[in-house]
Amino acid sequence: MKILVTGAKGFVGRNLVENLKNVRDGKNRTRPALRIDEIREYDIDSAPEELDAYCKDCDFVFHLAGVNRPKDPKEFREGNFGFASALLDMLKKYNNTCPVMLSSSIQATLQGRFGASEYGLSKKAGEDLFFAYAEETGAKALVYRFPNLVGKWVRPNYNSAVGTFCHNIANDLPITVNDPSVELEMLFIDDLIDEMFDALEGKEHRCEFDGVRTVLTENGRYCAAPVTHKATLGRIVELLCVFHDQPQTLVMPAIPDGSFEKKLYSMYLSYLPKEKVAFDLKMNVDDRGSFTELLKTADHGQFSVNISKPGITKGQHWHNSKWEFFIVVSGRGLIQERKIGTDEVIEFEVSGERIQAVHMLPGYTHNIINLSETENLVTVMWANEIFNPDRPDTFGENV
Length: 399
Fold this sequence. Notes:
By secondary structure, the protein is α/β, with parallel strands linked by helices. It is built from 9 helices and 23 strands.
């Protein structure tokens, strides 16, 4: 399959091209039905004759090129209608009726605040052009009206408030939120790429529009990515501030699979400046070694790393309801546990050469002993709750 991508250097284009390469090169094997032989990238600095050559025998066109921040409103129609017309004329020149996908905007509904939008009018004209082309030639036209597009590589201070917020908060720059109650509908780039791959496989999702609301329906005139997220500006900024503070608090908020929070965190991280990519952790050091908290989760406890010097015993305490995993990743040690009120002791020899997870049982006092005379013992520890100094549930007692 030979795929033409116009606007290949834009936000969507860059993400699409790199992910098409992953399929082409066998790095992404989740799409076994797709065989990509050639990716043809066309952008504003490409020569017109390149487009002519690309249109001759391409098998699919992603038309992503467009204008959204012109100096003169007239450029909207030139960029969002004029170039689309030239593209379709070149396909007709070679009788190439391959499927064509158009990147349009929810503003093309011309509903509500979009009613007088020059941008929306130009996008609507482009849509009509594609539908007319499909009727004339029999080619499949896939017209997508996108809401706010977000994700890695969104250009800040351009046309994405979310991208601007991510960039500014990551770089300790001020932001302005006039009305935190304003709700945005967001389409994350990875969800869009999944839909674009579906379109390549002929499995695009269809829809109609009720005002600005997307209504998925099997025989809809338009197409849509089925997964979007809605959140207020206030909620977005609140989450971004939590992400910003994580190196200090070590607290990771709940990020369920597929959730808005998980996707927004990934987007935020893509804006981190180099000096924030690595950050120091507080090591609690004494003559026995060190103990360092690594990560605290909102609802799944915390992770730490313990380093014990040769011959050192650590622990010697028990918990009522707290439990832990000890995972030795380097060195050689002995873990002992004794049920409170009994002489019953269970022991586990552990080593970084055979990594195991050992439960620290509630109601059992426990320790960990470095058996080496020369090497440190390094243990990753997980506790089912974040340590609360006001209710530590930790009571000293030798095994």
